Amino acid sequence: MGVSVKLRDNHALGWLSIRHLANRINDFVSDYHGRRITGPLLEEAKRQSC
Fold this sequence. Notes:
This protein is mainly alpha-helical. It has one domain. It has 2 helices and no strands. The protein has helices at about 5-30, 40-50. The longest helix has 30 residues, at about 5-30. It comes from Pseudomonas monsensis. This is Integrase.
């Protein structure tokens, strides 16, 4: 196996890992979007944490 083939394969594996991570992040955001704390709830949490 030549060096260029190894580099190509490693490059492809790197992009595959990045795509997998991006998909996991997108799933996390969509799964937990309804649990976001914003507005008055966020302000109350900030106030109580000080």
